[in-house]
Each structure stands twice: as C-alpha cells, then as structure tokens.
Amino acid sequence: MLKKFKFLGLAAALVFALLLAACGGGEDTEQESGDTQNDGGNEDAASGVELGEDELNIPYVAWAGALARTPLVQQVLEEVGYTVETTQVEAGAMWSSVANDDASFMTASWLPATHQSYWEQYQDDVEVVGEFVAQAPLALTVPSYMDVNSIEDLKGNEELGEAVEWEIVGIDPGAGIMQNTQTALEEYGLENWSLTPSSEAAMLSELKTKIENEEPILVPLWKPHWAFAEMDLKMLEDPKEVYGGAGDRIEAVAHKSFKEDSPAAYEVIQRITEDYNEEMENELLVAINNGAEPADAASKYLEDNPDLLKKWTEGIGE
C-alpha cells in the first residue's frame, strides 16, 4: 500500500513538473515570437537596418550640383550614426575609386551620355542606387544676346570665331561634358575651334565678366545650375544629340558590395533619391550661390524640412 502511494506521488509530481515545463515553454515561445515580430517590424521599417561598415567616403567633383547634394546626403547619414568623409577629386578618380571599392558611393553620375565612357569601363563593379534628377540637359551655352542658336551656327562663323579667338571656355578636363564637347567639335566639323580646360569656378567667373561687358563667350553648361537663374543664357541646339538629347539622369552610384557592407546607408540613399528633385537642388544651389557654405545650406534645408529628415531616417539604427 505504501509503495502504491509512493508510486502515485511520484506520478503526480512528474505530471505537475511536466505541466510547469509546458507552461514555462509556452511563455518562452510567446516571448521569442514577440521578439521575432519586433525584429520583423524594424526590418519592415527599413530593409537593412544595421549600419554595417560605418565609416564611409564620398568622392565628389566640385561641380555645382555635386556641391549641393553631397553634404545633404552626408549629414543625413551622420544623423543615423555613420562617420562620413568627403573627398574632392576629378571625374575619373570619382568613378575609379568607387569601382575599386576605395570609396563608398558617389552622388554625381551622369548617364547615359556624359559618363558613358566611365560606365562602359566600370559597369561590372558598380550599380545605380537611386536617381536624384531625371533629366539634366547639357549643351554648349551662350549669353542670350549672342546671335547663334545651334552648334551648327559655329561652323565657318568667322566673325564670332575671331571675336572669341575660336575658343570654348571649359571646366576640369576629366569631366564628361568636356569629352562631349570635344566630340561635338569633331561631329559638327568645327576644325578651327578649340576647347580650353579650366575649372567650373574659373569658367563661371569668365562667363560673368563677359556678360557684364556684353561680350561673346561659349561654355559647356548643364541644368540644374544656378547660372541659369542668375544670368540670361541659352543652350545651343544640338541636332546630332552629342550631349544626350533631352538630358542625362543624375544618379547615386555605388560599388556592388555597398548594399551588403553598409545596408542602412544603402537604404537611406534610396529614400533620399525617391524624394530629391530639380526643385530641391535649385533651392540648395541658390543658397550656395548667395554665399552659404554647402554644408550650411544642407543643414538649413534639413532644419526647414524636418518631415523629410524623419522620413529618410525613420527605423534606421534602431
């Protein structure tokens, strides 16, 4: 009889222990499920919430648009926890550094026309992350008071050629628009004309001086650019579409490993480029042209648009 009670006691204790284990296991499962749901929620908020490699480098060329976009992107990335260094380079170095994975990404790819040669060289190693501006036309540009309307009007134009010493005032030699302009000289048979490299700042300074004196000048230019708001200019028609017709796309381009290396940064850039447009860029360009430092212009823009900053950073780094 005592053995029977002992057996029943042991059986009851075993059942009780199993019940406790089952209850406890249910609580653990529920908690784990809750944690999984929370993780999934963060992933829904930002595909790739982890910062990953948190030291980034953005190479840029000192073109007006790049000077506007680069600090804006930099400051948003710093807001979510990245350390971002920017490096001024020429166009060729900008592309090669990203393609070689020595830099993280760029904000100044012009495709399909202006940077076609770079894309053909590096396309296996890079990818487009997002688009800043859908159509950015490029062309030979003159003050509106000049009596030329097409690149074709330059051929054999002795009066104009002698007035400007047969010179087109260019920007940095590695720029895609310089390559396009050299091609235009060949395609339109402008044997007497030459393209003089300088820098964007030097070209714009000379353009402004010539306009103040109402003198002729030819330069390669593009939109969006503050020069078209501040000066009365016209782009010359390009029947052969050497400069790409309606215009290039201005895009963010990164090394193909960037999404895996720095997933949150990849996500942030995609969010920014979904909203960024020509109007936004013009606002930054005008502020910079009016004397603001590019970084200050970017800071002011983000301060004035907190909803955008929240949209671009929400769920990142949590």
From TrEMBL:
Coiled-coil region list: none
Pfam families noted in UniProt: OpuAC
Keywords: Cell membrane, Membrane, Signal, Transport
Signal sequence range: 1-21
Primary location: membrane
UniProt region (Disordered), positions on chain: 27-47
One GO CC annotation: ATP-binding cassette (ABC) transporter complex
Protein's UniProt name: Glycine/betaine ABC transporter substrate-binding protein
Signal as UniProt keyword: yes
Cellular location(s): Cell membrane
GO biological process, one term: glycine betaine transport
GO-annotated molecular function: amine transmembrane transporter activity; carnitine transmembrane transporter activity
Residue ranges constituting the ABC-type glycine betaine transport system substrate-binding domain according to the UniProt record: 55-303
